[in-house]
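Lab manual, section 2.4: Encoding a predicted structure.

Procedure: take the sequence of the chain (376 residues), apply the prediction step described in section 2.3, and record the output as structure tokens. A sample record is shown.
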Amino acid sequence: MMEETSFIIGGDTVINKKISSKKITNEDLSKLFLSHNYRILNLEAPITTSTSPILKTGPNLKASEEQITRLKSELGINVFTLANNHIYDYGREGVLDTIKYCKNNKITHIGAGNNIESAAQTCYVKHGSNIVGIVNITENEWSSADEENAGASGFNLIDNFWQIKEASEIADCVFVIYHGGHEYYNLPSPRIQKLFRFFVDMGANIVVSHHTHCISGFENYKNAPIYYGLGNFLFTSGNRSDQWNHGMIISVKFQNNVLSHQPFFVRNSIEKNQLQLLTNHDNHLFMKKIEGLNQIIRNPILLRQNWERYVDNTFNNYINYISPTSFITNKYIRGGLRYFNFKFLSELGVALRLNLTRCESHLDLTVAASKRYLRK
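Recorded output:
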């Protein structure tokens, strides 16, 4: 019988302030992590001394080296996934400082590098006679590396196809860990479901996703589990909602070419200032919620209906994003214009923006021109 190889995978992790409790995690959680061979978290922000944030929309995040080291010690973290939308928040220096931190602390890093070639390297771990390949990908926001610039391994369907195919030929088991999706939405869009299933068709044995800051459901597709959203693991920056402070972690075991998996749930307790593993009643309640989401995921009609409702709910926000008023820096003027519903949009203008982003050839030039403008 082949030796069992075990992994535990958690979601988005940012600690950017001092945690005063004696231990960041409770005993049950640390025991669970330490019972696995590979302990994996998504490090959602660079560990760097750089004081030069990049120009971007959204916040520039930085993780505390001291607190991340505490977390690493308590849980025995030995793998960080770095392909996410914040790893480049402090530019090349932030990415390379983070990689240096990982090397100095004997933590394997995946998904970021000094260029796209190094960022997109598959990580192969060998345990006993098992070889497991881990592919780490993020959606293309502000962090993607290219031929000349450091950053994360950004999604590219053709490149990802060949990467996963090659990994499936080398490894006994292939993990795809993906950072993307729609924030605060507990379900995959129909497009994301189609994409993740295609990852399985390419050769992935399990697909795990994070980024949405909320827990989603999972399904088995061709005997491969697909987890659509782990939520936050421990994220001290941002809001303090119930969803924000709960996350899912996945135990994965591989033996004799058979993969098994089990979800667990964590809660960042504000009262105890500690991340805790949920047990018994609370764990059962979360599994009931997940089972409800799983039913929707398995039903294409329900999945489409929920997606359409989400589009309805976010319609005004996204119309405002493409309005010229979004470029007004004075928040009072911008707020007043939006209050009175001044968007300065025309059907022709919206049609132009749609065509620039929907058509692949126009999108190539839109992205290239935008990058060149920002470099100036």
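Check your result against the sample. DSSP finds eleven helices and 16 strands in the chain.
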